[in-house]
Design goal:
single chain; 188 residues; alpha+beta; six-stranded antiparallel sheet; two-stranded antiparallel sheet; 4 helices; 8 strands; globular
Length: 188
Amino acid sequence: MKRANFAFAALVPMAALLAGCGQAASQTKTTTSTKSTATSGGGVTGTKNSASAPSTAQFPAVAHAADTKVAPVIGIGHQPAPSTLQIRNLVTGTGATATASSTVTVNYTGTSYTSGKIFDSSWSRGTPATFPLNGVIPGFKDAIVGMKVGGRREVVIPPSLGYGSQGSPPAIAPNETLVFVIDLLKVH
């Protein structure tokens, strides 16, 4: 199934994350994903692919990282981009936990790892987004599963868990590594 292009209209705010939902199940089975574990103080979480926590050098800087009432500003990533999903808690939530079958309400900003350019943001639309986790790209789903309401996470999604060699023109280039800062507002 072909992935849909991004839609920036207010009527279709989640098209960017819902694109590729037909491939999500097959991609998840054939690619490595990350299970996160919260650390005290909102520290870095580990990945299945590494024995130790990812280096903070793999994460672009985030202005307003701990203030979930303000849109985050994501910097440019450091090369080389990580080849596995990287997750770090900027704020550790204390509410309900998202599962793979949850429908969630989030605020998020998505940028290119290499340029820092925003390609999608619920903050810029002025309204949070609500969607089922089984309908988004694998890296976005894996980033939210295990997250608690009230939390804010920064995630770096490699192309294999995002839009791959197809990209999602014109917003996302082929083989683009993505960065999201996600605030989990509600688990339905």
